[in-house]
Amino acid sequence: MYTKKIVIRYPADVVDQPIVYRLVKDFDLIFNILKARVFPRREGLLVLEVCGTKENFDRGVHFLKEKGLRVEPLSKSVKQNLEKCVHCGACIAFCPTGALHLDGDSMMVLFDAEKCNGCEICVSACPPRAMEVDLL
User: Fold this and answer.
1) How far apart, in whole angstroms, are the C-alpha atoms of residue 6 and residue 62?
2) How many CA atoms lie within 13 A of 39 on its CB side?
3) Residue 20: how many CB atoms within 10 A of its CB?
4) Which residues contact 32 (CB under 8 A, 6 or more apart)?
5) Strand 131-133 with 70-73, pairing
6) pLDDT in tens, 62-110
7) Which residue, 38, 77, 83, 115, has fewest beta-carbon neighbours within 10 Å?
8) What is the CA angle 21-134-56, rounded to 5?
9) How far apart are CA 108 and CA 102, in angstroms?
10) What is the pTM of this model?
11) What's the rounded Cα separation, in Å, for the pair 134 and 136?
12) Percentage above 90 pLDDT, the chain
């Protein structure tokens, strides 16, 4: 079973289409919604954990891209800007997945993008704004 966390950004004209339904029905993929921002007539955002065969996953992503949606790995969505980070650790207390943690040897805040669920709580919790969201 192949599992991957992805960010799907879609234009306003696709918001009313059953995109996730098609992933399930046509490509036999299982999904867990980690985050969703859906508004009528506005760009939308879905953060999904998708499971299935690698072949079906690739076919599903191809379908999404053909529909004009942007698909990227979740790790590209939330980033730690090391130039801004002062390693205060404020973000660690708010991270629900343990993606942010303090390295005991170096006393530096480390970010594990694979553990990140894209909730973006760390972005508002970070005093120097070192946790950032890539909205491209």
Assistant:
1) 13
2) 4
3) 17
4) 48, 49
5) unpaired
6) 999 999 999 988 766 788 999 999 999 999 999 998 999 999 999 999 9
7) 83
8) 30
9) 6
10) 0.60
11) 6
12) 51
Distance CA 1, CA 78 (A): 25
Whole-angstrom CA distances from 53 to 32, 59, 60, 74, 110 are 16, 10, 10, 19, 31
- pLDDT-derived band of residue 11, with 50, 70 and 90 as boundaries? confident
d(CA 109, CA 107): 7
| In the chain, ranges of CATH 3.30.70.260 domains | 2-75
The answer to whether 77 touches 47, Cβ cutoff 8 Å, is yes
CATH number 3.40.50.300 is the correct assignment for the domain at 79-133: no
Residue type, 51: C
CA 26 to chain centre: 23
Are 64 and 19 in contact, with CB atoms under 8 Å apart? yes
CATH 3.30.70.20 in the chain, residue ranges: 79-133
Under CATH, which architecture does the 2-75 domain have?
Answer: 2-Layer Sandwich (3.30)
